[in-house]
Every structure is written in structure tokens, then in C-alpha cells.
Amino acid sequence: MSENETQTVAAGKDATVLPPKARESLKAARAVFLKSGYDGATMEEIARVAAISKATLYAHFPGKAALFEELIRVECRAVNARLYVPDPQSASVEAELRRVADNYRRIFTQREGLDLFRVLIPVAPRFPRLAEVFYEEGPGGSVRKIATYLAALDRAGRLRIPDPDLAALQLLALISEDSRLSGMLALPPWPASEADPLIDCGIAMFLAFYKP
């Protein structure tokens, strides 16, 4: 990825504030990347699907890597915006964690954001920057939301959590690993009769370990 490409996508603007042509470019790019993969996609095809000129496309995104990076940012932020933000003032920590788990399962059952993840995996070793952006804007953003909540619980003395970031990673692994893995592999989601006991057990283990 060139220096110019990195500088262009570093701003990571929300899709709603991008110029209309840029939004159309991202929409077209998503369709082309999902159809042809990263290596098979071309700027020419993306411009054709977006019904814009190549010059217009390059005016917004100086190359394919920059376009894919911005698409990753936009999609990951859209998914993270739909994640449940637990309330540290809620009377029941267990109920809040259950809401988090149900929200995660619903999102990953719908496969949101996972299509691009599957496009990214084959090229991640060649484009580590793209993998870094995906993690920071996707899973990393989720961890930060949960860690903020857990830190508030620790300050209030409701749980004993010396490392909220680590605890957030542990919690997400306990309550959503099955949904994420099945989604990544495009497998049918676990039925509630199987997923619910796993989530309940994971939350119980988490609360038992971090009890004050």
C-alpha cells in the first residue's frame, strides 16, 4: 500500500459523511469484492458497477487497497454501532451480560461483517495493514466497549477486574465464540437450545472468577 493510500484512508470517515460518489463506490466495491475476491476485483469493474468514471473513483480512492481498507472501516463501524452497550448502573450485571451475549449472537447469526472478513483472510499475510484495520475497527472496538463497562464495574466495587481489557477478551470468548466461528465458516447458526446453555455457563464462570 502506498503512502498516499495510507494517508487517504487514515481519516476513516463514516459512510454517512462521505460524498455521494464515494458512497456509491463503496457499495459497488463491496459487491465486486464479494463476487471476485480481493485479487480478482479491479478498479475498472468497481467503477463500472458504480456507474462512475475511473477518474472519479481514483479521485476518492487512490488504489484498490485504499478502497478495500475504507470499506473494512465502514462495515466494521456499522456493525459496532449495533452492538449493545451495557449499562454499569443496571441493577443486574448478569442480565446486562446476557443482553450483550444475545446481541452478539444475533449480529453474527446474521453474518454481518463476516463476508468481508472471508475476503480479507487470503490476502492478510500480504497486506497486514488491512488485517490491522479490521481488528482495530471490528473486534478491537468490541473489546473496548466491553472493557469500558467492566472498568466501571470494578470502580464501583461490583466486580474485581484488575485488567478490563483482558477480562473483555475472556468474556467475549465465553459468550460468542461459537457464533463467530460458525459465522466465519458460513455454517448454520447454533439453535438457541444449544447456544443458551453455553452462554449461561460462560457468564456464570465469568462472574464467579471476578466476584469481589
From TrEMBL:
InterPro entries: DNA-bd_HTH_TetR-type_CS, Homeodomain-like_sf, HTH-type_TetR-like_transc_reg, HTH_TetR, Tet_transcr_reg_TetR-rel_C_sf, TetR_C_Proteobacteria. Residues 19-79 form the HTH tetR-type domain. Keywords: DNA-binding. One of its GO terms (molecular function) is transcription cis-regulatory region binding. The keyword ATP-binding does not apply. Residues 42-61 bind DNA. This is Transcriptional regulator, TetR family. It comes from Pseudoxanthobacter soli DSM 19599.
